[in-house]
Amino acid sequence: YASDIYSYLRVRERRRMEYRGQSPQLHCRRDLVRFIGEMCDKMHLCVAVHHLATHLLDFFMDEHDIELHQLEMLSLACLVVAAKAEGVDPLIPSNGEIVRLMHNAFTSTHLACMEMSVLVFFDWEVHHPTIATFLDFFALLAMFPSDMARCRDSPAQLLNLESSLKNYLSYFLDTALKDYSFIKMPASMVAAACVACSRMCLHLQPLWSPMLENVSKYKLEQLTPCIGRLLT
């Protein structure tokens, strides 16, 4: 079933709308991504929600000229839509609670209208695969049998390696989210490159495996430009 799900996600990935990077508010993106992350922390929402909310924000902004004072409200609307799409509704505060968190900068009605605008723009198809979605698949294969064999006499060393690998994967995932140049790359490719970069930083060889190539459908040489960008 995992291979069927992955194939379906790749099909969805190829069907996404074109990103042009033409938003007049593109210079605000880094601050908005950070803002969404802070709100995710306050609401105890997962990384997948952060990435999907940012994805929705990126493509909505790309096709609209949004007044600066509405950008945070738009970000929150994308966050609410993403949380519902990821199935974590119980963790989402009501619109009234969100408005209070924002010190009444807008009304519940305005937030609901913005949420509807996002849904209509995407024709209600909002559960798009992101870098975080694909990394969930690849992370399970990021440690090779040869890595574990080297640590077989030291459980502590193995635990340390697993922890370090997890931290690097998280670091590169966050790096890719903050840099809008990765939006034009396939999310699956960026996720695969996150694995290769993490192994490179830990001096683990080989960087790529036949299993990862088979699952991801990427050869290491196809990832080279993306790896270079992540390491820049």
From TrEMBL:
InterPro entries: Cyclin, Cyclin-like_dom, Cyclin-like_sf, Cyclin_A/B-like, Cyclin_C-dom, Cyclin_N. SUPFAM superfamilies: Cyclin-like. GO terms for biological process: cell division; G1/S transition of mitotic cell cycle. It comes from the Eukaryota. Residues 34-120, 156-232 form the Cyclin-like domain. Keywords: Cell cycle, Cell division, Cyclin. GO terms for molecular function: cyclin-dependent protein serine/threonine kinase regulator activity. It holds the Pfam family Cyclin_C. GO terms for cellular component: cyclin-dependent protein kinase holoenzyme complex; cytoplasm; microtubule organizing center; nucleus. Residues 129-232 form the Cyclin C-terminal domain. Belongs to the cyclin family. This is Cyclin A3, putative. It comes from Ixodes scapularis (Black-legged tick).
